[in-house]
Amino acid sequence: MINSDVIQAANAKAVDRLEADYAALGAHLDRRGIDIAAIKAKVAKYGVAIPSWGVGTGGTRFARFPGSGEPRDIFDKLDDCGVIHQLTTATPSVSLHIPWDAQPAADLNSKAEEVGLTFDAMNSNTFQDQPDQTHSYKFGSLSHTDAATRQQAVHHNIACIELGAQIGSKALTIWVGDGSNFPGQTNFTRQFERYLDATRQVYDTLPDDWTLLTEHKMYEPAFYSTVVQDWGTNLLIAQQLGDKAKCLVDLGHHAPNVNIEMIVARLTQFGKLGGFHFNDSKYGDDDLDTGSIDPYRLFLVFNELVEAESNPDFNPMHMLDQSHNVTDPIESLMVSAMEVQRAYAQALLVDRAALEGYQDSNDALMATTTLKDGFRTNVEPILAMARLEKGGAIDPVAAYRASRYRAQVSEDRPAVSGAGGGIV
Ligand SMILES: [Mn+2]
To answer: CA-to-CA distance for 244 and 209, rounded, in angstroms?
Structure first.
């Protein structure tokens, strides 16, 4: 963790300016009939989970260029996640990936407590082979033609639930790379039947207070067809399995220009929106930093989430899922967490009564302007003040750089090889 003196010294340099900006924004919002303190209170309560794999440098199919002080194991990763939460106060939980992060539950729990974090959804991995595994996933896992291979994948998912239950997790996220690379390679229907049958076996072992999240992805690693390729397939799975099964929407897992915010609205309307993986993209599943390319789309997604907030049963899980190839992952994750918070705060500012009036009277111009008023408001003083009041940093990146955390951990963590493709 970072010495609190460093955070306080960094905050001391910025606090006068923040207080002036916060007061000015408060006066501006007051004229719009918005109580800045109420918005700040909601922002302060908001949290997005960090994926354990996000704190390592990512890579592409071509190469990986690791930075210094890469985390060696889940305990180093939890240290890094602890720093992200310490500075941003916006990332209270970590999502584990099994088997990469498999360790005894007691050790995971004590480390999480030490760094002030809890555990979010468990993520299973049946898209690559592990050294000790009997059956290969080269031709699929939960949908494989071979029953023993499917069973191995089912057992792995159940093991993820069992570990998760010991560390306070309440959800399992299943993403499979199953699909095909050639027309005719698989029978779409029989393959999906096998997937549903195997996934139901996992679902049947789920504790009552757990959620099973299935994540669709349009392509990659299979490039012709993917078993869970779109939100329609994902919804069918959730409907087939039952009430504890819901859909996870990864922003990058759609074709370019797909109206993701409308998918969010549809899944919400029928109680099947289970969670998010936030990231951004320009061309495909780019795994770029959240809000770095199209912050307006992120805002439009949050507009749907705020719209649904009045339903007490609506509580989707929020996680970042992105690949950091050219930045310090800690810095990227801090900025991304703040971008998610920013979109939430902007969506809270939308005058929903006015918007509804314009929608009902078919005033398209005023409806879209009213919506965009939220996006155009610079809410940074709200986010920064929420962080300051919770003991975080006014400017997390500045405080992180001042702390020299990366240089310090690099002394203990040996340099790792950059050879080979990274995992995205
Ligand atoms: Mn994802």
So the answer is: 8
- 209 CA distance to ligand 1 centroid (A)? 23
Q: In angstroms, rounded to a whole number, what is the distance separating the alpha carbons of residues 33 and 394?
A: 26
CA of 365 to the centre of ligand 1 (A): 35
**346-358 pLDDT per residue, tens:** 999 999 999 999 9
24-38 tens-digit pLDDT: 999 999 999 999 999
Does residue 373 sit within a domain?
A: no
Q: How far is the CA of 234 from the centre of ligand 1 (A)?
A: 14
Number of domains making up the chain: 1
Query: How many angstroms separate the alpha carbon of residue 70 from the centre of ligand 1?
Result: 22
Neighbours of 270 (CB within 10 A): 11
Please state, for a pLDDT cut of 90, what percent of the chain lies above it. Answer: 95
Q: Classify residue 400: in a domain, yes or no.
A: no
Interatomic CA distance for residues 349 and 342, integer angstroms: 11
Phi/psi at 388 (nearest 5 deg)? -60, -45
Give residue 77's domain range: 47-345
Q: Cα(319) to centroid of ligand 1, in Å?
A: 9
Q: What is the largest CA-CA distance in the chain?
A: 66
Tokens representing 318 are: 């929020």
70 within a domain of the structure (yes/no): yes
> Full-prediction pTM beyond 0.70?
yes
- Report residue 422's pLDDT band, with 50, 70 and 90 as the boundaries: very low
268: CATH: 3.20.20.150
CB atoms within 10 A of CB 411: 9
**Triad 196, 201, 204: Cα angle to 5°:** 115
